[in-house]
Amino acid sequence: MLDLPNCPKCNSEYTYEDGSLFVCPECGHEWTLEIETDVNEDIKIFKDANGNVLQDGDSITVIKDLKVKGSSLVVKIGTKVKNIRLVDGDHDIDCNIDGFGAMKLKSEFVKKI
C-alpha cells in the first residue's frame, strides 16, 4: 500500500493521487509535493467566468449587462476593458472603461480575451 501524505490544509488522511497531484476529498485541496509551500496559501488567484486565471494588465470582456450603481448607465455585454488591476475585496478588478471612467468589477462577470 502506498504511503500518501496527509492533507496540508485540513490534515485529512484520506488523500489520493490524481496524476501528478495529490487531492483531499474532504476539503478539495490539491497540491504537489515538490512545490507545496506556505507562501502559496497567501496568494489569491483571480479567475474569470470561464475559469481562466486573470493577471494585472490583462484585457477582458464583460459577459453580462451591468447596472452602474448611483446612475442610470449600464455597462453593456461585450464591452472590452484593457489593462486591468487586480485588488482584494468584494470587487476584484479596478479598471477604466471608455465612456464610464474608473470602475470596479467582479471577476465572475468578465472573461479574459
Automatic annotation (TrEMBL):
Coiled-coil annotated residue ranges, if any: none
Domain Protein YjdM N-terminal: 4-32
Pfam families in the cross-refs: YjdM, Zn_Ribbon_YjdM
Record domain Protein YjdM C-terminal: where: 47-112
Superkingdom of this protein's organism: Bacteria
InterPro entries the record matches: YjdM (IPR004624), YjdM_C (IPR013988), YjdM_N (IPR013987)
Signal peptide: none
Alphabetized PANTHER family for the sequence: PROTEIN YJDM, PROTEIN YJDM-RELATED
Family from the record: Belongs to the YjdM family.
Protein name in UniProt: Zinc ribbon domain-containing protein YjdM
